[in-house]
Write a structure and sequence with these properties.
The complex is a heterodimer.
Chain A (H helix, E strand, L loop, with lengths): L7 H12 L2 E5 L9 H13 L4 E4 L4 H11 L6 E4 L2 E4 L1 H10 L1 H5 L28
Parallel strand pairs in A: 1-2
Antiparallel strand pairs in A: 1-3, 3-4
Chain B lengths: L4 H11 L4 E6 L3 E7 L8 H12 L9 E7 L2 H4 L2
Parallel strand pairs in B: 2-3
Antiparallel strand pairs in B: 1-2
The chains are: A alpha+beta, B alpha+beta.
């Protein structure tokens, strides 16, 4: 990149990634996702209970273009934690299912992924009153 | 011409040494499960990038969406 080139969109994206510890670039907004992959990723982040910033890439095609140039990642959504790309919907899904996502976000893993070593794995009895 | 799962499978297997791919899709949205020794020692981001790199700018364009799962070996794939 030449010293004289200015690229305000790329600079703004880089700044957003740096300043927000958890940031999701997506199609649409968390309240109104415009793509199934973005919707699933938002749902997982909301389920683990993390705060996150969200950027809609759809209003200007240059956002996606510059974002992919920064991240070397071709698809949307893209989740960044601590300034680094974590991945898209597939990777976030794998990490969500393995409990790694909690770890990456500095959250405690949900109880059902913390089976104590040596403890017999049993199915929990159905608890009607707790389901309401 | 729209892409086919067979085309994606062939191109992945031709481009990534030792890769075995299973691809499903409707011509626009695809899902690829790729097992390759070349993934060994790479983190997931790097593994997925190897697969995306097979198709370059076609991803998001001609290949509208490509979901990827990567495995380093057959044994891991059957766990």
């Amino acid at each position: 990149m030449s010293d004289t080139a200015t690229n305000p969109i790329r600079d703004a994206i880089q700044e957003a990634i740096t300043e927000n510890s958890v940031i999701l670039f997506m199609k649409g907004t968390p309240d109104a996702p415009a793509c199934g992959f973005s919707a699933r990723t938002v749902a997982m982040l909301q389920t683990v209970g993390t705060q996150f910033a969200a950027v809609d890439v759809l209003p200007d095609p240059r956002i996606r273009q510059e974002l992919s140039a920064i991240s070397n990642w071709p698809t949307i959504p893209q989740l960044f934690v601590g300034g680094a790309l974590v991945g898209g919907c597939d990777i976030v899904t794998e990490m969500y299912e393995s409990g790694e996502l909690h770890q990456t976000l500095g959250l405690e893993a949900p109880d059902d992924t913390q089976v104590p070593a040596g403890a017999p794995v049993q199915s929990a009895p159905m608890s009607i009153e707790n389901r309401l | 011409m729209s892409a086919t799962p067979e085309e994606l499978k062939e191109r992945i297997e031709a481009s990534i040494p030792g890769a075995v791919a299973s691809v499903t899709g409707d011509g626009h949205h695809f899902n690829a499960v790729v097992t390759a020794p070349a993934f060994s020692g790479l983190n997931r981001l790097a593994q997925h990038r190897l697969v995306y790199d097979v198709f370059g700018s076609e991803v998001g364009d001609r290949i509208h969406a490509l979901s990827i799962q990567t495995r380093t070996s057959e044994t891991e794939a059957t766990r």
